[in-house]
Amino acid sequence: xxxxxxxxxxxxxxxxxxxLITVGSIFFxxxxxxxxxxxxxxxxxxxxxxxxxxxxxxxxxxxxxYWENKSINNTFELDPKLEQQVLNxxxxxxxxxxxxxxxxxxxxxxxxxxxxxxxxxGKEHKLMSLADRVVEGKYLEKGDEGLIIGxxxxxxxxxxxxxxxxxxxxxxxxxxxxxxxxxxxxxxxxSPDLNKMIVFMDLANCQEFFSAENRLTSLVVNVKKxxxxxxxxxKIRNNLPAPYSIMSWEEMSPDLVQQIESDRAGGVIMxxxxxxxxxxxxxxxxxxxxxxxxxxFGVIIAIGMQRKKLATILFFETIFIGLIGAISGxxxxxxxxxxxxxxxxxxxxxxxxxxxxYGFEPFMxxxxxxxxxxxxxxxxxxxxxxxxxxPIISANKLNLIKALRS
Length: 406
Fold this sequence. Notes:
This protein has 406 residues and is an alpha+beta fold. The chain folds into 2 domains: 2-51 and 256-405, no CATH class; 65-241, no CATH class. Helix content is 56%, strand content 20%. The chain has 16 helices and 14 strands. The longest helix has 41 residues, at 16-56.
């Protein structure tokens, strides 16, 4: 076996040009497919990041009836024991209490339905980076009796910092909720829809407005690593007492998950087309190599080499070509994609405007997920292994007389 390895390796470099052409096709196949996958997964990660970082978090704990009927009556009392139970899970980073409902906001003759979000300013900043998104005025402080609103909402209601916003709603168990609040600041929320309707209040102030003292609609749970999400979700779900329920971001945003999966399926088809093109290129080169060496094969069989051994050597040659191409593609794609990950491609013109209109930054983002690299190299290598069947069949079916006369 060792002798077969040596012979296969030496045969590769007898004709360097032919070997390098075949290796090059595999190399560019791995590089191109890795680049495509990284760009595709990068866009998905950004979409998920938008949902997780700017609103839902990785998981949320609700009252078991809340998600089907998002009423302020389906809230729960903040229980320190529940909070501590969640934090005892080593995968959990922090939890954020929220009270969320809707109200009618008005300014002079203008009115608009708004989403009112009662938050703990310091904790919420850890998730949403809200303080960094204040474009005018200042961020909320704990115990603040004012509020901050979306820039789009402020523009519609023709309000600015230090102006007063009037809100009317229905509080806990049908109690009337009404109040006037000074505007501390304006924020530019990444989501265009939320930017036109979001109102942030300090949690205690919001609970007072809705007459829902110490009550929450959700407890946002954030994990330290995305890879720990499913593990921590199972742990918390198994130990969570009634009447609480916990949901992951996938369960809260099924439309986004479906969109990603359908787009990913389209990407698989595109990559399969690339793989097929690469495979035919490799097969063509292997066929050319077999045809050029037909006389050589005839001579070595004539002097006593077994066809089985010749087939083994040709198989190893093809495998070596596949390994060299796949590994070299990996070696080059890793630093290239690290650079692209740190330096996303900026988009301009109408494409950038369309991206911004949907709440996305106008950049083409890339991913460094391990699957981006090893899946492409492994797939191309598997195709090479399949193609290596051709030299084996050719060696076993070689017509000795015709080979010697070729």
